[in-house]
Amino acid sequence: MTTLQQALLVSIDKNKDKNALWVNNKYYTYKKLDEISNRYSEIYSKNNSNFVCILSEKNIYCYASILSVVKDGRTYVPLNPKFPVEKNKQIFNSSGAKILVVESKFINQAKFIVNSKSRKKVLIIVPDKKLPAFKNKISNCEIYSKKDFHLSNKKKFTFRKTNPLTICYILFTSGSTGLPKGVPINNSNLMSYLKNVYAKYKPNFRDKFSHNFDLTFDLSIHDIFLSWISGACLYVTPDDQLLNPGYFIKKHNITMWFSVPSLGINMYKMKQLKKNIFPSIRQTLFCGEALPSTLVEKWSEAAPNSKIDNLYGPTETTIAITSYRWKKDQSSKECFNGIVPIGIPFKGQKTYLSEPKNFKTKFKKIKELCFSGPQVFKGYLKNKKMNIEKFLRKKDKTLWYKTGDLVEKNLNGNFIYLGRLDRQIKVKGFRVEIQEVENLIKKVTKSNYSAVIGWPLVDESKYSYSGMIVFILKQIKIKDELIIKRLGKKLPFYSIPQKIIRLKKFPINFNGKIDYKKLSSLTGYEN
Amino acid sequence: MKISKSKVYTLIQNYLIKECKKKKIKKNFNLDKVDFFKKGIIDSLGFLNLISTIEKKLNVEIDLSNENPSKLTNLYNLTKLIYQRI
Fold first, then answer.
1. Per the confidence metrics, is the pTM higher than 0.90?
2. Which residue of A7, A91, A205, B79 has the fewest C-beta atoms within 10 A of its own C-beta?
């Protein structure tokens, strides 16, 4: 099978009576989900737009619309109700979508999003409510609500045909200019990823997948489509259950767990990682952040029947492109500064270690990781400048995507993540790798949380600062002076932070990672 | 030293009031009954922080790992559960 559409249609046909989804305390079989999604397809046929934006919380309408977009050979573009409305508007405009599926409670956001004088007619679908009086309230829009779904279940559809180059989804990552960059992932990219993880984790109809991620985070694509092509059931974690995900795992006997390490760390702090508490989990995946070995050790005690993999990959290389399998007796020796290696590339993906530009280090082994292969995207949406900047063309004409991530290869051939190339800053004229300072602070304070920012900014064009600020947790007992003193023993004078700010908690962005922009604002000075 | 239920209640209440002020949430609701998670007063990290604040102030360990999270999100229930566990 070469497209996701084909894989899903086969799976739906094969697993009709099995549960596909558990959301808001209700199960939906593949048959039911398929039927609901068909109602959308009839309405999509009134508009020839390839791109469909979806603005909804996680509910049955949301998942049915995602399925309908893929089945109909169109491109899925998630928006996020938690995003500022301006950002959703930028994504909608950049994608060029002319179809918007919106949950009724976000209808005012939708009005703002589609409001553009130059825009062609937009088709708005409100699947969860009958809206008789609503029609004609948004100019240049055609609105369909629940009352307009009249499709007979028996009606057979002829879906648009897809091929490996059909764009499957577009996700937007934050750009340095403040404008989000669109990352189109085609069927060839996604199917290559799914084939790799399918072969690795062998999911089947008995599996119960956790689903913790926001839909604008690419790891959510893994949960949704890997479970559905396997005939498994996707368990959507309700927001309030994130206070105690352990309860959710036990209640549903989750077998496939996937989260960012931060969520695991929170579970540990909430005393949820007790010995053998999650015997049902057979595979755990962590991705999206550096993975501390201390968490893996605790997790392997809590989920003794689970294999644990650390995945790594930028959105541009389709969800994840390398993996590292934790081995009880060997892996702790392979960790660097207490961080688990990111492992080796998936089958069929090629790596190239490039000399990092404008990066000087005494460690010659540190390189920028570049990828080529079927999982690597073809380029950003309408962004020529970035496409020139982010790809490396070698003599044999192979294009390599430059991740901006610094790595080193260890003796076993596993890559060790050392930080971001673009998190380098200049302090008093010297180049400083922020990740390096953060890792050291974590070691000194024996904490999993630390963040460093350059401050105050001296010269914007050169990312130059006259000093640095460190953020740590309030409850850390070591005095500020002692932390600085200990850092002074390991770091050159210009890398030693001037100030330590203690926080009750770290601000987190929509993807569950530390929000550096918010940290900047906490200094009292915007950088 | 025996810790009273009202002390637990006051600690949680003060924490929630502080968070409301910080987030500029108008307190036009009954704090006893409101679901503070759905209301956006605290998120999962805020909850973690609330528990560790109580642990520190009362010098106790609180284990809520067996509790259904949907029962932890209002002041009355949370006070009751924490009081039972210390």
1. no
2. A205
Chain A CB contacts of B52 under 8 Å are: 269, 475
Q: What is the pLDDT of residues A491-514, one digit of tens each?
A: 777 788 888 999 988 988 877 778
CB contact (8 A) between residue B48 and residue A271: no
| B44, B66, B73: residue with CB nearest A266 | B44
Q: Which of B36, B39, B45 to mutate to test the interface with A (most CBs of A within 10 A)?
A: B45
Compute the Cα dihedral for A98, A102, A104, A108 and give only its sign. negative
Residue with tokens 């959710």: A248
Rounded Cα distance, A402 and A354, in Å: 8
Q: Classify strands A51-55 and A141-145 as parallel, antiparallel or unpaired.
A: unpaired
Regarding an ipTM greater than 0.90, the answer is no
Q: Does residue A91 contact residue A53 with C-beta atoms inside 8 Å? A: yes
Residue carrying structure tokens 């084939």: A195
Search chain B and give the residue with CA nearest A237. Answer: B69
Domains and CATH numbers, chain A: 4-8+28-162 (3.40.50.980), 208-420 (3.40.50.12780), 424-521 (3.30.300.30)
Instruction: Tell me which residue in A244, A277, A505 faces B67 most closely, judged by beta carbons.
Output: A244
